[in-house]
Glycosyl transferase family 25 domain-containing protein
Amino acid sequence: KYVMVDMQLDKALIFEDDVHFQTNFKRRLMRLMEEVEQVELDWDIIYLGRKKVNLEEEVAVENVRNLVYADYSYWTLSYAISLQGAQKLLNAEPISKMLPVDEFLPIILQALHHLFTNGSSAVN
């Protein structure tokens, strides 16, 4: 039912069915995740593509290129999720709230440690 949590997967990538990958997606993602691991960043979700809602500048994640602490966002084109992030989302019981994931994630993530790639997105 909850594959990631049941199998205790450390992290997973989630892609919407309408995501369009840039030609350098894999290389950029691997570099990003290497930097996240090098700085031992504690993270729940890393947006790989989203629509930023607020125009204000977001706070950069120190020592990780192209990563910010994300404000409220629309569209969950793709994201990486950690095991602890998946457990936090499940603990919020999203199925009982019946919100589309594009709306649920931004709401719940305001209370969680969440990140987003800054600048040009790895996906369109």
The beta strands are 11-15, 45-52, 67-68, 73-82, 114-117. Residues 25 and 122 are 5 Å apart (CA to CA).
